Task: structure prediction
Amino acid sequence: MRVSANGIAIEVDDRGPADGVPLLLIMGLGMQLTSWPDELVALLVARGMRVIRFDNRDVGLSQSMDAAGPPQVALATVRWMLHLPVRAPYTLRDMAADARGVLDALGIARAHVCGASMGGMIAQHLAAETPARVASLTLMMTTSGSRRLPGPTLAARRAITSRPAGNDVASLTARGLRVFAAIGSPAYPPEPEAFRRRVEASYARAYNGPGTSRQLMAVVADGDRSALLPRIQAPTRIIHGGADPLVPVACGRDLLARIPGAVGDFIAGMGHDLPQQLLPRFADGIAENARRGAARP
Result:
C-alpha cells in the first residue's frame, strides 16, 4: 500500500497483528523493502511483532525524486575528498522524516526501529532527533560516517560503483550478482539458484538508477554523525559482520563505543548482507533488544 509520508508517496508493507509490537525496518542504499527477507519478517511476526517495511524515497515503488535533477555524484565525490561541503538533492534527515511520516500515517506513536547500512544512518538521525518515537534501536552493518574509520576495500568499492551492461532485468541481475559476490558473507554463501531468483525478482519489481545515486549523494553530504550518537537514548544493539568489506567491522565497534549502553553482536564470517543462515539470530537479537526497550519508561 502507498501512504503519504512527509509530503511524498511511500510504498509500505505492514505484516503481523495490528496490536503487535511495532517494528520499523529501514533498508539501505538503493535497496527495496523486499531486501528484508520474507523469512526474517515471518520470524519477527512469530515473536509478536508488527513488522513495517517501506521503500525509501527514490527507489522501489515509492515516489521518485527525478524533479531534483540528475545526480552529480562525481562532483560530490571530489568535494568530499577536498573536505568541502556537498550539496545533495535531499538529506538523510529528510529520509528520517519520511520514516517518521510512515509511522504517522499508520497511527503509530512509538516503534522499535532497525536500520541496515544506509538505513542505519537514517535510523541514527531518527533516534537522536526524535527519541520519543524510538523505543529501541538495532543498527546493522552501518557507521557513524567518521573519516577516522576505514572505508570499503578496493574490490567492494569497484563492485558498488560498477554499472550494468543495460537496464533490462537480465543485465541488472548479472550486475547485482557481481556486487553481492564482492560484498557478501564468505562464511554464509547463499544457495545460488534461489538467490538469483530473488535478485531477479527485485529488479523486475522496480529499478531507479538515478534514485540510488541521489541517495548516495545524501550519504556523502551527511558526513560525520559522531556528535549525534551520545544523544541516542533508546536501548541499542549493534549487529555487524567481521568480514564486511563495504563497511568494515571497526565501524560497528565505533558505534558500540559511542552510543550509551549499546550492546554488540559481531559475527565472524558475515559480510555486508543478510545471510539466510543468520536470520534466526537476527530475529532473536532484534526481539531481545525490543524487550530491553519495553522495560524502559
